[in-house]
Amino acid sequence: MGQTITAGSLKNDIKALARAISLVENEADNYQQLLQSIQPNTGTKVIGITGPPGAGKSTLVDALLDKLVTNGKKVAVLCVDPSSPFNLGAVLGDRIRMSDWYTHPNVFIRSLASRGAMGGLHPKIIEITDIVLAADFDYIMIETVGVGQSEIEIAGLADVTVVVVVPEAGDEIQTMKAGLMEIANVFAVNKGDRPGADKFIKNLRLMLAPAFTKTQVPVEVVKTIAHEKQGIDELLKAIDQYVQANHFNDKKAWLLTEKAYQLILKQRMSDIDKQTLKNNVTQALQSHTTFNLYNFVHQLNQQL
């Protein structure tokens, strides 16, 4: 499969793109050669959509899709779904909300299992995003699992990070404690027709104001009602403005540095097989009345 897919074929062949993602996911033969041959499209905007569970991320992505496609844009959506910790399979229920787009010629949707990875993302999300960047899309949207504080990884992958919250997110202090304040480039306060939405937005803006200097792009707070497709124009405008203002800055080098670090880390860990590790843990549990995780890891490190 790896020999039949070329970097050039990704631009105009959706089937080749889908196969290339599977090639990378499964680490099939020659997938590294494919990655080394691709040239990402620098004009594509990568949007990260994150936030706590139940905030309406999938509905918001659906509304953004509708607006972008109506404007003649080509859009790819990577949806990272929760995984079972036992078989690493994905729960794909949220994808029902985007079922209207699966056969649209200007839309590519791929669901990915998080496979237990922290950060709300897929363990090969960097490589998969670069594969999609090599195709001919105007926008790539990456929707994370929605696990809360640990999904800060999205900030190192996307050009702009949209954090979706709801008026019932709790008081302002609790919102800050959610761990999402530092990574948000744009806040989408979804379900803005609910009681207390305007007060929540006002307090959120007041809270953000002291955190930024004149040289930084302020964090926009946009009220949306995703299921009625309200506020989507304003949200898209805020996204585009942020990307344009931050296209050339030192952040790009830091993001690429973080990506390089993660790729090197995964390659160094490539000889650690999780199934083999599980077998070793099972054997240790059966042979000892007490199991000390740190002694187990120390002994395993000495063997490697």
Automatic annotation (TrEMBL):
Keywords: Chaperone, Coiled coil, GTP-binding, Hydrolase, Nucleotide-binding
Domain of life, per lineage: Bacteria
Coiled coil (residue ranges): 7-34
NCBIfam families: lao
Record family assignment: Belongs to the SIMIBI class G3E GTPase family. ArgK/MeaB subfamily.
Protein name: Methylmalonyl Co-A mutase-associated GTPase MeaB
